[in-house]
Structures
1.
Amino acid sequence: MSRIIRLVRTLFRPAVAASPQIDGIVVCAGDSMDPTLKFGQRVRVRPAARIRAGDVVVFTTASPDIHVIHRVMFKAPFVPWFVHKGDAAGAQAALASTLRIVGLADLPRRPPSVEEWLDGVVRFTATAWQAVTRRDPS
């Protein structure tokens, strides 16, 4: 299979079924968003029609019972993927499917810095490249 076809299949293949949306209050149970959110702080979450870099979203992990609240650093165009990370110092960026998003936190949007945005682009590109170059007999 050509690398281009593999890239298209990888990027456009949904990682999971779309998660049900949340419309209500969630409680922050960690410190990855400190200083924006403190442990135990309540946050209003509404359904997310679309996301942009800088939005704070709530999404499921591999375990649908566990939710994460992080800021979007980069939303890949035309494909269902975004790069996210917490606001805490030293937080690492990671890639997730937009289909896992269950809501948009009612917090001020803070566009990522150029460095954060570039980190998101690099993280997304590196993950896509790994998928393309992976040895696959199909």
2.
Amino acid sequence: MSDKFKHDLSQSALIFKHVIYPIIKDWIGGGELIPVENVTEKQFTKLLDTNAGIDGWYVENNKGIRGLASRIQYRNAYNTFTIRYERHSGVKTEYEKLDHAINEDWLYPHYFIQAYVNLPKKFNYKEHDFSKNEIQILNIALTKTEDLISYYNSGKEETDWFYKEVTKHGAAIFIVIPWRYYNETNEAMIYDKSFLDKPPTTYAEKRLAKNRKKKKMLLKDTIMEDDIDKRSIYEDFYETLLKIHYPDYPEIFWERRIEHWNKHPDLKKSFDSKYEELQVKFYDA
């Protein structure tokens, strides 16, 4: 483990404890944070990081304990989840650890937290007085780790996520998942949601926006067709869903029903009765 990595790990752990956790504490129940290094021998701390990706323990008395994973980035709020996918050194990555643990029923962090902060000038984490609140929180998001890994595994590159190569401080390839698109089908708790009310602005959002627009247009064109065979309407839509694998299907289809399918009164009653059945089929597929 390099000195640079040890420095970043220690700095991130303190920022998470004193700055980030007080914000997210009530999101997950108000329990106590116990950093891994506070209660674990160094050798086992390394094993937890190497095999499970756990940075801390969330404890609720008389209820239970859950593992937490955290990532902190600085200067800009990119509003993304980032997961290390591949190291040039060949060392096992976060994605490999988490995917293996989830699929094979091993220990893994229940929650994944990503935060963006600004540090004051000449910041020294060893000497800093965290009670002064000089660290600016840019944004924070929290989600269930299993949901995050499932989103990547079932999503499409350059539509739901993309890969980014980083060459500094240990070359690696990261999975980048914008919160904006992740939150359309999953639940991420976000500190500052104001960006969701605006058009895509970050590089990550813009990079995926074009392909996502194409998928929406494809679905819209399929729904708005005037010559659809009414007898096979549900089978046609189900087949289309499988082809384009569009996760926003239920909401968009429902909106289009309101503005378009009322033109076909004879379908309305049948559609209403079939909607839930079709939705279940889609998510079970």
3.
Amino acid sequence: MSNTSSTAHDDPGQGHGHGHAELHPGHFHHFEPEQAYHAAKFGMWLFLATEILFFGGLFAAYAVFHSKYTHLFHESSKALNPWLGGTNTVVLLLSSFSMALGVDAAQHGKNKKVIWCLAFTLVCAAIFMGIKYIEYTSKFSHNIFPGTNLFFALYFCLTGLHGIHVVLGICIITWIMTLAAKNRFS
């Protein structure tokens, strides 16, 4: 006698009898939706706290050394281009705004808006990295390197680490855009 009836265990897309497959098919199979939400939110806050501690330590080092070596920092900062730095600041603020709009769009299931907002964020990231390229090549052409002095050691450390974050962000945002293109946000 053959059994032709199907159970939730027979179809991997239907969950495993816990009743949450209808809410998130194929997702959160180990957690209830509310628990998964709180775990993800806690994880994001934990990530942000580590970033604040990491960059906070670097900014604290900058502040301490700036107060100790005021003349060195003042003279070295003359090699920086305030227009490029100012432009990058505006670009970062615009990208933060467009990213926030993208998150809001994802929360409201507006996948096309997610894609447009994140595409704008990626354009901002490319502009930021292009300006960093111009700044770095200018420094290198004037024989200014991380080992030049303490100011430039901190400058290259802070801006280089931020650049790495931007590149990682580009990868993550691209992945999120592919999810939005598949209408994964509802």
